[in-house]
């Protein structure tokens, strides 16, 4: 079964765009996923085919109309009733690797891309829509968010990544950031590759990588580290626990 991405957008010509090259592009050619952009404007019914209007209550910008969006979403739901329907919104649940993995294991995804000030709120009450954010910043439209979500899913589809295991050791898969990588040349600007990586001792290498991943996560992302350790990283006294140095 082909993982099918329906993208509801005012700019269908943006797709597959960056997903048409490299890993995702090859996977698209091989039929491992299907890209189906849907023009939201096709569901406008007035003479001017308008999709937006001024915000009720006043203020800047324009709001995407619930009636037009409702018809577009119904079309997507009819074509892919079992795929999650996701709206890109800055207030949505932050996208995680766990959610990406769950979506990638399903039949596909339908993604609603906002523009202007966003969507008429009533849409979210009337349809089964999950809101997802790709980070705490504001984009001009949901399309870049859709690329992000799709790229993260596509690389996990069966047969897309070269080495079957290369997805499993990566950042976030075990709740940790990844260990550092090195490749030839052995010496670059006077800097050498860590000795252990040239030892050929696989157990020692695995242990070193695990320690590196832990150290990097602890220093760069204390939030991830705490979750990985199972809850707040605190001693009974409430003082922050010193974790053993390597
Ligand atoms: N008025 C909104 C921002 C609208 S930006 C607010 O203040 O929250 C226009 C569109 O870009 C949004 O409807 C959404 O689809 C998309 N977008 C912007 N930032 C995003 C983010 N961080 N994650 C996902 N989608 C985003």
Q: What's the gist of this structure?
A:
The protein is of the alpha/beta class.
Distance between the termini: 47 Å
Q: In what range is the share of β-strand residues?
A: 15-25%
Instruction: Examine the secondary-structure arrangement and name the CATH architecture of the largest domain.
Output: 3-Layer(aba) Sandwich
Q: What Rg is obtained from the alpha carbons, in whole angstroms?
A: 23 Å
What is the N-to-C succession of helices and strands?
A: EHEEEHEHEHEHEEHH
CATH superfamily of the largest domain: SPOUT methyltransferase, trefoil knot domain
Q: Count the domains.
A: 2
Q: Report the principal-axis shape.
A: elongated
Query: At the third CATH level, what is the topology name of the largest domain?
Result: Alpha/beta knot
Strand order of the largest sheet: 2-1-6-5-7
Strand count, sense and barrel status of the largest sheet are: 5 strands, parallel
Number of strands: 9
Bound molecules: S-adenosyl-L-homocysteine
The average pLDDT is 93
If you had to describe this structure to a student in words, what would you say it looks like?
By secondary structure, the chain is of the alpha/beta class. It folds into two domains: 3-154, Alpha/beta knot, CATH 3.40.1280; 168-246, Trp Operon Repressor, Chain A (Orthogonal Bundle), CATH 1.10.1270. It is built from seven helices and nine strands, in the order βαβββαβαβαβαββαα. The strands form three sheets. A five-stranded parallel beta sheet has the order 2-1-6-5-7, with helices on both faces. A two-stranded antiparallel ribbon has the order 3-4. Helix 3 crosses helix 5 (143-154) and helix 6 packs across helix 7. Mean pLDDT is 93; it is low at 234-239 and 241-246. S-adenosyl-L-homocysteine binds at residues 88-91, 113-115, 117-118, 133-135, 137-139, 141-142, 145.
């Amino acid at each position: 079964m082909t993982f099918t991405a329906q993208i509801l957008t005012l700019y269908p010509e943006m797709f597959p765009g960056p997903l048409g090259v490299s890993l995702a592009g090859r996977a698209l050619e091989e039929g491992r996923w299907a890209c189906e952009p849907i023009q939201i404007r096709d569901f406008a019914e007035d003479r001017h085919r308008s999709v937006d209007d001024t915000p009720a209550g006043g203020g800047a910008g324009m709001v995407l109309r619930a009636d037009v969006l409702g018809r577009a979403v119904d079309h997507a739901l009819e074509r892919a009733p079992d795929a999650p329907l996701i709206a890109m919104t800055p207030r949505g649940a932050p996208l995680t690797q766990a959610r990406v993995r769950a979506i990638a294991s399903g039949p596909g995804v339908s993604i609603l891309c906002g523009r202007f000030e966003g969507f008429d709120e009533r849409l979210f009450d009337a349809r089964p829509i999950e809101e997802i954010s790709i980070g705490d910043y504001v984009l001009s439209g949901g399309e870049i968010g859709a690329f992000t979500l799709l790229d993260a899913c596509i690389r996990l589809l069966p047969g897309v990544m070269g080495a079957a295991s290369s997805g499993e050791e990566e950042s976030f898969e075990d709740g940790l950031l990844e260990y550092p990588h090195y490749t030839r040349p052995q010496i670059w600007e006077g800097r050498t590759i860590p000795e252990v990586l040239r030892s050929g001792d696989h157990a020692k290498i695995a242990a070193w990588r695990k320690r590196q991943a832990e150290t990097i996560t602890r220093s760069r992302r204390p939030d991830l580290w705490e979750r990985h350790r199972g809850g707040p990283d605190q001693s009974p006294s409430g003082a922050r626990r010193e974790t053993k140095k390597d």
